[in-house]
Amino acid sequence: MSSWVVTNTLALLLLPPGCLLLLAAYGLAIAKRRPRAGRAVVGAALLMLYLVSTEYVADRLLRSLEPQARDPLADGRGQAIVVLGGGQYFAAPEYAGADTVTAQTLVRLRYAAQLHRASGKPVLVTGGSPAGAATSEAGAMKAVLEREFSVPVRWTEGESRTTLENARLSRRTLSAAGIDTVYLVTHGWHMARARRAFEHEGFRVIPAPTAYTTGYRLTALDFMPSARAL
């Protein structure tokens, strides 16, 4: 089993709903010896599972991670645009079975294309193939940017499996070109962690987050559990 699989398995167990299901299982396990405590633990787990399954709570949790929105190009010192991969869409039947990008990655590429047109800065795409596919995330991202957005990609980093590796391997590529200040493109909720990783590698990061959590108005549906919110 690869380290990537192990790391992500542990992450899924520590985040909802995995951690809440483990908590409920613990409550059931102690219920025979301590009925009241067991019922309380199971009830707490179910209540928390309900809460994080609602759009109202999920949106507010995501917004707590997102930086304040501002124009990244107002800081004109960026030397390149770095776009982080957000997953692969394997063997897409509507694209003749080719591997391509997920909807999450496509959102990042769209914003990177806008930044490139507005600034003229060169683009680096980063993302390997943790699942072992022949096409890396970066390779699929490059294809979409160039064919569908007519944006040239100068650098393709296709070996990384995590955000930390995105930063380290991008540093290796860009330092050779004398670049240490970058516009970093990823989802708003992912920006804080991504920024720390890139700054740890010596980059000066100008955040360029996209896909903020927004809404029109509250309705009763915002308090109903849904798979999307979870």
Please tell me about this protein's structure:
The protein is α/β, with parallel strands linked by helices and 230 residues long. The strands form two sheets. A five-stranded parallel sheet has the order 5-4-1-6-7. Strands 2-3 form a two-stranded antiparallel ribbon. Strand 6, helix 8 and strand 7 form a beta-alpha-beta unit. The longest helix has 18 residues. The two termini are 27 Å apart.
Secondary structure layout:
Layout: H1 3-14, H2 18-30, H3 35-52, H4 55-63, E1 80-84, E2 88-92, E3 98-101, H5 103-119, E4 123-126, H6 137-148, E5 155-157, H7 163-175, E6 181-187, H8 191-200, E7 204-210
Helix pairs in contact: 2-3, 7-8
Main-sheet strand order equals 5-4-1-6-7
Strand fraction:
15-25%
Dominant shape = elongated
* Unreliable segments of 5+ consecutive residues: none
What is the number of helical segments per DSSP (H or I, 4+ residues)?
8
What's the order of the H and E elements? HHHHEEEHEHEHEHE
If you average the pLDDT, what whole number results? Answer: 95
Radius of gyration: 21 Å
* Distance, first to last CA: 27 Å
Largest sheet entry: 5 strands, parallel
